[in-house]
Specification:
Number of strands: 15
Largest sheet: 7 strands, mixed
Strand content: 15-25%
Structural class: alpha/beta
Shape: globular
Bound molecules: pyridoxal-5'-phosphate
Helix content: 40-55%
CATH superfamily of the largest domain: Type I PLP-dependent aspartate aminotransferase-like (Major domain)
Length: about 375
């Protein structure tokens, strides 16, 4: 007999039993009053979680589908777009915008660093002609950096550029008050902090985004948000949605309401802090400094005498815990531990203990017990 494999990767993430049960039920008809009630509940709860009155649409697509919907509904060929890039997903925004004919300027910082809002502000102020939009990655999953979205969105707004935000690995784990921060477009996906299997893309679309849509020359059939808005006014969707995931999302959001946003956000901060404390106590080097460290994902350099492959393989085979490799240029250079959604303090302690045992089994010198002690001391002090 084997224990269940445990996902400490940045998505897909662990799914609660109640959500799995909702997803597993026989599908209901999508043109029924029962499903319309599910749609109503989901939309209301997503607005609650995003602290917004903006429109929100649930697309049957992955997060990248949501990114494509964001671009294809706001940006016309030839529009100038400033893409803020601190990793793989920032670059993805630039590529999506280019695919729709935008003239993209990249503002890039080295992996592991956050975007400097002052530099963005200066860039926007001096730009001629002005940028139509700024693409922002709130939480850069490839490195584990969280950007100062409030300041970045404010800079975009000051210079009349749309803020188009990837919140795929932050939304639902980190406070993102869309209306208070006046963010125009926010995209997320189901398989991260929302505790669902992959398959839904979610897009919040504000007033200025609709104004951009009115003049937008780009074309999309499936992702034309006007159709989604018309359908949503009747509590339905334009095409057959993933009914099962919609039902799961209703359950997940109900669970999140029960926990409350403040508790959810504080829990993710504790996961980050205790994990970082434990990893450092183990003598491991973290990729991101404390001020830019993500509450949902932590990147770690392997010790000089071990490879990322060996660590990941042993953790998986021996302890059934999955952690992620680095992506693209960071492949084999770092490993990443995801801690978002249905993840708790116990899971951090378990991961630290298993990682410590893994390093010891691979022949690396570690002081046994120190990592878990550091993490649990920190958790105890914060109660
Ligand atoms: C920050 C970020 N943006 C976008 C995506 C793309 O989402 P998907 O793989 O669901 O298309 C991911 C996926 O990991 C991500 O972490």
């Amino acid at each position: 007999m084997q224990p269940r494999e445990f996902l400490m990767i940045p998505g897909p993430t662990p799914v609660p039993d109640a959500v799995l049960e909702s997803v597993a039920r026989h599908p209901i008809g999508h043109r029924t009053p029962e499903f319309s009630k599910v749609v109503q509940d989901v939309i209301q709860d997503l607005k609650w979680l995003g602290k917004t009155e903006n429109d929100v649409f649930v697309l049957t697509a992955s997060g990248t589908g949501g990114m494509e919907a964001a671009v294809s509904n706001t940006i016309s060929p030839g529009d100038r777009v400033l893409s803020l890039i601190c990793g793989v997903f920032g670059e993805r925004w630039a590529k999506v915008a280019e695919a729709f004919g935008a003239e993209v300027e990249r503002m890039t910082v080295e992996p592991g660093k956050a975007i400097d809002p002052k530099a963005v502000e200066a860039k926007l102020a001096s730009a001629q002609p002005k940028f139509k939009a700024v693409t922002i990655t709130h939480n850069e999953t490839s490195t584990g950096v969280i950007n100062d979205l409030q300041a970045l969105a404010a800079a975009a707004k000051k210079h009349s550029a749309l803020s188009v935000v990837d919140a795929v690995t932050s939304f639902g784990a980190v406070d993102l008050p869309i209306d208070a921060w006046d963010v125009d477009v926010v995209v997320t996906g189901s398989q991260k902090a929302l505790m669902l299997p992959p398959g839904l893309g979610i897009i919040f679309f504000g007033k200025r985004a609709w104004e951009a849509k009115a003049n937008c020359q780009s074309k999309s059939f499936y992702f034309d948000l006007k159709k989604y808005k018309k359908s949503l006014d009747a509590n339905t969707t334009p095409y057959t949605p993933n009914v099962s995931l919609f039902c799961g999302l209703a359950t997940a959001l109900k669970m999140m309401r029960e926990e409350g946003t403040e508790s959810i956000f504080a829990r993710h901060m504790r996961l980050k802090q205790s994990l970082r404390a434990g990893l450092q106590a183990m003598g491991l080097e973290l990729v991101v400094d404390e001020e830019a460290a993500s509450p949902t994902i932590t990147s770690i350099k392997p010790p000089a005498d071990l490879t990322v492959d060996a660590i990941r393989k042993k953790l998986k085979e021996r302890y059934k815990i999955l952690v992620a490799d680095g992506q693209e240029e960071l492949k084999g250079k770092i490993f990443r531990i995801g801690h978002m959604g249905y993840v708790f303090e116990r899971d951090v302690l378990m991961t630290l203990a298993s990682l410590e045992a893994t390093l010891i089994e691979l022949g690396h010198k570690v002081e046994p017990g120190k990592a878990v002690r550091s993490a649990s001391d920190l958790l105890a002090a914060r109660k």
